């Protein structure tokens, strides 16, 4: 087994995922390194912040610089100078989220136009498996069909059918030595279809499982409700991955419902737009109220931004479009989420997760979603 549960508190779990490049304590937030880099952050800085695993984007790396190039240069770990575990997605989400580029999907795979040059390209279970094998990631994701949040039942059912069909083929396709393979369940928030998808995917016996096709625009409360009943349907002896959530409120909610791993571009995206995650809420450093504020972004935070610089200085950097400002905010936001997740793990181990979550949400302000979560401006 690649995963073991070390503690539980209700449905919340702490555990350890073993990979070819080390162990990942869970719950784990995975910083997103789309193009073999977590934007503006050095790998050594990621380690210092507390990151244990990062995510790479197979779609983008396939087109630029190419999986074969990365393989020739020693694989993704050596290429990006990151010695820890790496998870790579299949590219399915990128293809299906860019719906205007799709030329057709069928039982064999999906044909689409590259966002780089507009040329036709095709992904099949075998080709994305080969791409991820060449990248040499520790965890590879199966190719899946991702319908939009407002997809009718027929489209959801077809996505479930294709996802199962493709997963069965990828199960026996080429893999890098020691590479784990995770299956993905689709079905939106439809109880019957997602239950069917989970049954079909788990019957294929993967190394771990993900809930896909959520956090893509559906009602947020319904999303959490879906995670609540669907996560326990996934095998307890395997890691459970929620694809694409990273706001503090959302992280706590999915951990409570039994999710072990999650990823999101939110912390670095906020950094590039001048915002900081704090226990006061989200700070917009462009705001004039911080022009003479000598306090750190967050008291008692050990990140490079908070230990050395004031809100006033970071505001100056952001408003002058200095790259250091965006870097400092990205470092802080990553540290905030990584600390939040590590503290949640400790609370689970102590049997105190419910109290931890309640206290955390009281400090944050309970909010409906990451986009409107702005109690501090």
Could you characterize the architecture of this molecule?
- With 377 residues, this protein is an alpha/beta fold.
- It folds into 2 domains: 262 residues, TIM Barrel (Alpha-Beta Barrel); 94 residues, no CATH class.
- The chain is built from 15 helices and 16 strands.
- Helix 14 runs antiparallel to helix 15.
- 51% of the residues are buried.
Overall shape: globular
> End-to-end span in angstroms?
46 Å
Q: Which class of the largest domain in CATH terms?
A: Alpha Beta
What is the gyration radius calculated from CA atoms?
20 Å
Q: Give the rounded overall mean pLDDT.
A: 96
Tell me what the CATH architecture of the largest domain is.
Alpha-Beta Barrel
Low-confidence stretches: 368-377
Structural class: alpha/beta
Which superfamily, in CATH terms, is the homologous superfamily of the largest domain? Queuine tRNA-ribosyltransferase-like
Provide the β-strand percentage band: 15-25%
What would a concise description of this structure say?
With 377 residues, the chain is an alpha/beta fold. 40% of the residues lie in helices and 19% in strands.
Features:
40% helix, alpha/beta, globular, 2 domains, 377 residues, single chain, disordered C terminus, TIM Barrel, 15 helices, eight-stranded parallel β-barrel, three-stranded antiparallel sheet
